[in-house]
Amino acid sequence: MSKPHVVGVVGSLRDQSYTRVGIERALAAAEEMGATTELLDLREFDLPVFDADHREAGDAVEFVDRVHTADSILLGTPVYHGSYSGVLKNALDYCGFDEFEHKTVGLLAVAGGGFPITALEHLRSVCRALNCWVIPHQAAIPNARNYVADGRITDADIEDRVTTLGEEAVQYANIEPDPACFESTENIGADD
């Protein structure tokens, strides 16, 4: 069996993004487990606001193709107004079942405050609608400015959670998926 390929998507456009630090750490852990990895930094893609009539706009084809190659996908987001970022939502709108169905997905959320959980719940719902297998373990970096400095996570417990996410992305990369979940069978707009 070939090495699993883990792709990490950074749903932040900030130059000094704490989300990027978290995804980079999770990918490093995946690499240490023997996976090949790739960082998809949404700052580097021209992804106009999604329009179903123009699915190949900007760098959409390249982005979708790179997500499609993954065995496991790590989605990282800052928390904005209790949910995940618009830039990540827009990138996910370019994708569909072809890119996500039966894939393993790990979730990471970063918050300026202490409550990143709802963003993770929202992403979990989106992933279930795409019939992914979402890793039960999820990573959160609350109060990020206190725990991320100089491009690294400074809190041992938080770093352990993020590292575990990367390791489990490899461990469960080839898990046999469950039968289609209810959310995915009701996702009639997926090919709209």
TrEMBL record:
One of its GO terms (molecular function) is FMN binding. GO terms for cellular component: cytosol. The lineage of its organism: Archaea, Methanobacteriati, Methanobacteriota, Stenosarchaea group, Halobacteria. Belongs to the SsuE family. Isf subfamily. This is NAD(P)H-dependent oxidoreductase. Its cofactor is [4Fe-4S] cluster. Residues 5-144 form the NADPH-dependent FMN reductase-like domain.
